[in-house]
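Quick check before the chapter quiz. The format below is the same one you will see on the exam, so make sure you can read both the input and the output lines.
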Amino acid sequence: RALAGEGPTLLEGQCYRFLSHTTDDDDRTYRTRADVESYRPQDPVPAFERRLVEGGVLTAADAKRLRDEVTHTVNACTDAVEAEPKPQASDLYGNVYAGTEQPWI
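Here is the expected output.
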């Protein structure tokens, strides 16, 4: 559509969630490890990587370098955020509501 000048198109991609929703969610209470692993072959990230390598867009070395770079960036960002001081409880509603920071008043 875009190449034909027909305007934007919404593409929705759905994939299986391999990790828990949060660190407080023990997903083993509602699904087995075997169930999770059964979806691994459908994981879109390695599938797309394979497609790029097979299509000659990336070499296997390029793909590995990109994976390593992304892993490093994510780990560095996570480390930086985790090193931030914990917020004060009084900041709970800050930057959430317009006007007063106490919506119940």
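If your answer matched, good. The mean pLDDT is 89.
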